[in-house]
Amino acid sequence: MPVDLTIVLTDQPGELARIGQATGEAGVSILGMAAFTGQGRGIIHVLVATERADAARSALEQAGLGVADSREVMVIDVNDQPGSLGGLARTLGDAGVNIELAYTTFGGIKLVIATDDLDAARASLA
């Protein structure tokens, strides 16, 4: 399963560039990303391949960027049609799975989700 890294940084120009440069220099591709700012901070989620997660974390930390969290996530193919998200979320909700994070990947229609119960999520979508 892919890994989502949560990076907390100061909301100022150039910080996203630092993330891209650190991971790029380490040979780690960012497969998806979500970025939010507020109250002077930036919260960035980056999706990386499982086998590159340790290299990404190390590169980010060496660049002075703190990794606040690292967790396994699901990447789900989503149909490009109205109601797809609602149906997917309903299936998970009916299985008692709480979606804690959702964003899309680069280069396609896939939804990244972090949940309180990955096993139940996988089973409900199988």
Please explain how this structure is put together:
The longest helix is centred in the N-terminal third of the chain and has 11 residues, at 15-25. With 126 residues, this protein is of the alpha+beta class. The chain has four helices and seven strands; from the N terminus they run E-H-E-E-H-E-E-H-E-E-H. It is 32% helix and 37% strand. Helix 1 packs across helix 2 (53-62).
Radius of gyration: 15 Å
Distance between the termini: 15 Å
**Strand neighbour order, sheet with most strands:** 2-3-1-4
Please state the structural category. Answer: alpha+beta
Biggest sheet: strands, sense, closure? 4 strands, antiparallel
The secondary-structure element order is EHEEHEEHEEH
- Content of β-strand: 35-45%
Helix content: 25-40%
Mean pLDDT: 92
Spans with pLDDT under 50 lasting ≥5 residues?
A: none
The number of helical runs is: 4
Secondary structure tally: strands: 7
The best one-word shape is elongated
SSE map:
Blueprint (H helix, E strand, L loop, with lengths): L2 E8 L4 H11 L6 E7 L2 E8 L4 H10 L3 E7 L1 E4 L6 H11 L4 E6 L5 E6 L2 H8 L1
Antiparallel strand pairs: 1-3, 1-4, 2-3, 5-7, 6-7
Helix pairs in contact: 1-2
Provide a compact summary of the structure.
This protein has 126 residues and is α+β, with helices and mostly antiparallel strands. The chain is built from four helices and seven strands. It has helices spanning 15-25, 53-62, 84-94, 118-125; strands at residues 3-10, 32-38, 41-48, 66-72, 74-77, 99-104, 110-115.
